[in-house]
Task: structure prediction
Amino acid sequence: MQETTPLTAQQAQLLSQLVQGLSTEQLAWVRGFLAGINHSVKQAGTQAPAATASAAAPQLTILYGSQTGHAQEVAEHAKARAVAAGFKVDLFAMGDYKASRLKNDKLLLVAVSTQGEGEPPDDARDFYEFLHGEKAPKLQGTRFAVLGLGDSSYEKFCQAGKDFDTRLAALGAERLVNRVDSDVDYDAPAERWIEEAVEALKRVAAPATAGAGNATGDGFSLAALASGVAPAAAASQYSRKHPFEATVLENIKLSGRGSSKEVHHVELSLEGSGLTYEPGDALGVVVKNDDTLVDDLIDTLALDPQATTTTQDSTLTLRDAFLRAYDITTLSRAFLEKYAALAESTELKALLAVGNEAALRDYLYGRDVLDVVRQFPARKVKAAEFVGTLRTLQPRLYSIASSLAANPEAVHITVGAVRYDSHGRARRGVASTYLADIAREGETVPVYIEANRNFKLPGDTNAPVIMIGPGTGIAPFRAFVEERQALDAPGKNWLFFGDRNFRTDFLYQREWQRYVKDGALNKIDLAFSRDTEDKVYVQHRMREQGKELYAWLQEGAHLYVCGDADQMARDVNTALVDIVAEHGGLAADAAAEYVKTLQREKRYQRDVY
Result:
């Protein structure tokens, strides 16, 4: 029987054109957008739409600080919901926002992630410093809401969001809703925050006609979607929630015999997926926990592995849920707090007490959920109660090590397998050992593409490129050089690479040598820390080449850093500032400002973790 529709033929055709090719995640976004329109229409009731409603729409500013793109996605979703509710919305990355506007932006939503040791994303640092500086304006009359994105396994969870929230309030702004700190499974809390924030905005700003021009009468159209509010439609239907089963083409161990590390080069086929990527993007790998670890945990808890439990997406047996749905390897304060209440453990509660932060850090290191339930057993725990203490198992992201232009319908990654012994048990990285051990030729791995808008080659192919990537941080630079060669980019390329030993740890050695011979790589500087009496790292090589490095920057070079955030990235940044000061003849403050200008101009980009 033919389905009836209240839409005209023209409206139905427009709708079909707009949703064609959208991924499942994008369709979910559209549903949220339409839900906002529907909510606005219902609240409008029988009120006659004012002809000048759009002109009278309240002004809302949404700011985001994003390292991997998640905060940007949330901000774009918030914009769509606010537009549907009748607001005029300006959306800015914090790096593009003119701070002089702040005192006049009376309605403000902020979505910001945290990186490193509680720091804001690179593109948010200038605004963060302005807000915390003496030039920040008083903000009486401003209403705001903050969403923080982070990872609760880190001590300074959502610290950047907390800092923005505290500082805005200290400057006199008033909260629309309480700050929300979202963990790695941020979708649901972000959606609730958007809903509550938009409702609060409507109470304080009272749009004349919610959704005017977008959702009333016969003039209904998806104007906001068509005009760029919606994220760009991807050619592929595959996403984080619905990954593509990529066939393994090759799995090659890169580390030499005798190396203290185990690094693999893995090639996967994307044939038939429609997935595309750019150098700088990441490959998301949907992982599962180790079978033995899952069985040991279920046995220790004395639970029925075939009992059913409901996750966000489906109903699974407890064993399948522990395998694929929940994180049982990463400890966090949030888990310990929930489990301490469940186990009624005074000892665990004491560990969590104020003043015991150092002891807690020591306890969290090198342990997993099984260690906790063995040390602090809970009596007669129910499956649903225990599942409630766990957070969602998240995909693992790997910097893509290939250029699509050079490798059509394939993707390469560089994987450092994590294996170590701790507290009497062997430990295994969830994704890294899966890829190193399980991923053999012909098998499949569930994957998707995670775009990284903040780590891109310069649009000008004449621009010189400086790449600093020790260890597996070399991965994206293999993609960069492949891409530049495939496109015949005339710009110069310079690589700094470091690891422990030249003989065993020079990743992709033959390829770099070939690129140097072919002229695709103009300079390469190496630092192998265990081959010399005094340990030498990439930042030392930078200082040795400081004069030429500064000359490249003066020529317009773009500089990229990939790898460890805790130590390497900090040392590289310090070296960069010192090089600019010495060879540019600048005072320390001026040199630091020079480097910040590079960041603002997107000429200094980092992918650190």
Summary: The chain is about 35% helix and 20% strand.
